[in-house]
Amino acid sequence: MSTPARRKLAAPTVAMLPRVADSLSFLYLDVVRVYQDDTGICAHVATEKRGSEYVYLPTAALSSLLLGPGTSITARALTTLARHGTTVVATGAGGVRCYSAMVAHSLSTDWLEHQARAWADPHQRLAVARRMYAQRFGDAAVAPEASLAQMRGMEGQRIKAMYRLLAQQYKLGRFRRSYDPEDWDDQDPVNLALSSANTCLYGIVHAAVVALGCSPALGFIHSGNQQAFVYDIADLYKAELTIPLAFSLNRATHPEQQARRHFRDQLRLFQLLPRIVTDIQRLLAPDVAIATPDLEEQVVDLWDPVSGVVPGAVNHAGEAE
């Protein structure tokens, strides 16, 4: 076999890469050094008890890498992660706060364009918001003539009823949702656990949104924040995932840490990441069939107001003549 033929067989194609829905949700690291060697990306962990340990990371099948306090990463490792489409996020302890994120430059803009078109048109934006509420209540519960204010009121009543039901189940008396960063340590275990679990949920949703190439800032119900679309999508799952978990930890001594650990352990059971990807695509473009990626490398196209898409990487000098 000739050398060019071998190179063509060895060259990775889009079809070879795992879909984001099949990826691991996230990997959190702290107090480690991440670097690239001849085999792959390795995390070097050094402790007094166990000495030096080396763990290789499955970068091509990893949706998001969360780097907590005490981590360092080399430029070569970042390059490989970007090439594999892995979102790299700098976080606080336990992955609770997000300080910055690096995303791959090779992402397709197909779903970003669907999102931007729907967001910019008031009628389409309302239709997407209506589909989000219909997913929570059921299609029959949302009347076609219901306004956005009425749907917000229905959602508020639903969450209040859920709080009341869970409070009775765990014999807590009256529960009131409270989120006050200035008075964090004085909050009850349920509120602490709920805030912590919601933050983990936001991180996973953010990874899915970015992996699809969408904008976290263009929300349909929420607005005015760089995480608006993340909040929109995360609200679809709170009643199923984070709220019951928080109430189950009402007597926990360390509710924040336990909420993060329980939520992480249950992610595979919930199969959350595939659901997020499917829901985003269905909400933004319910009538669009999900296309499989081309086997050939995608080249950037040019936009034309008359012709539509024009091939890129082509010299168009003849058109000027």
Structure in words:
Keywords: Antiviral defense, DNA-binding, Endonuclease, Hydrolase, Magnesium, Manganese, Metal-binding, Nuclease. Its EC number is 3.1.-.-. Its cofactor is Mg(2+); Mn(2+). The structure is a single chain. The protein has helices at 3-10, 75-83, 110-120, 122-137, 148-169, 189-211, 228-234, 242-248, 255-265, 267-270, 272-284, 317-320; strands at residues 27-29, 33-36, 41-47, 51-56, 64-67, 72-73, 87-91, 98-102, 302-304, 308-310. It has 321 residues and is α/β, with parallel strands linked by helices. A hairpin with a 3-residue loop joins strand 3 (41-47) and strand 4 (51-56). Helix 4 packs parallel to helix 5 and helix 6 (189-211) crosses helix 7 (228-234).
